[in-house]
Amino acid sequence: MVDPSKFEKLNVADACSIWNVLASRVLHAAARSAQISFCITAFVRYECLHKPSRAWPERPELQNRLRREIESGAVMACPIEVEDLQEVAVLEARRRLSKGEISSIVFAKKSQQAFMTDDKKAAALARAILPGHKVQNTPHLLAWLIFTARLHDSDKDAIVAELTSLSRNLNPHLEDAYREALRCRLMAQQLLREPPSRPKLMSLRPEHGAKTECPHL
Fold first, then answer.
1. How much is the pLDDT for 194?
2. Can you identify the CATH homologous superfamily of domain 10-190?
3. At what angle do helices 42-49 and 99-111 cross, to 10 degrees?
4. Sheet of strand 114-116, all strands in order from the earlier edge strand to the far edge
5. Which secondary-structure segment (H or E) carries 60?
6. What band does 100 get if pLDDT is binned at 50, 70 and 90?
7. What is the pLDDT of residue 215?
8. Cα–Cα distance, 134 to 130 (Å, whole number)
9. Between the CA of residue 59 and those of 8, 56, 64, what are the distances in Å?
10. Fewer beta carbons below 10 Å: N end or C end of the chain?
């Protein structure tokens, strides 16, 4: 289970996660307001904007949103250097993942950013290479925004509806992350309301009738 109280702000996103963030205007706006940044590798840009794939009607809308983000500089498309390609090739041989996912892990490691993915296999490989807190996903982002009150309870349903309208279904993971954020926020509020407990002072006086002895040195 993720920790809703913490979220790394600098992220290298793979294709599935950048699609999911951009699919919800409510989620994306809240993330930008909280100064969460996303960059992608050149491989991910190719996968999202140029690689031939099966036709699905929502793709052009997501592509237009990503193009606008890249053109405005809000999302940087980062090149991969030659020496990094060797590590990409090694990891590609280990796991059946796309070059976009693997290059994102490699670049996140090199740039000391977090890797953001909603793919289980990519997350598993990333946790073998990066510190655990440097592997994040979209439900974790939602949980953190709810926990820190940057999103309200009613926003969750709006986000789910936006994602569903563009065929980006993240339930039940979003619902689970939302409930965990509420649970942790309630616990944090209760801790703030509870007065600090006063330690009990031990009496230095002997009880009536009790013998006192000094220890031998």
1. 67
2. 5'-nuclease (3.40.50.1010)
3. 150
4. 75-78, 37-41, 10-13, 114-116, 135-136
5. helix 59-72
6. very high
7. 39
8. 6
9. 28, 6, 9
10. C
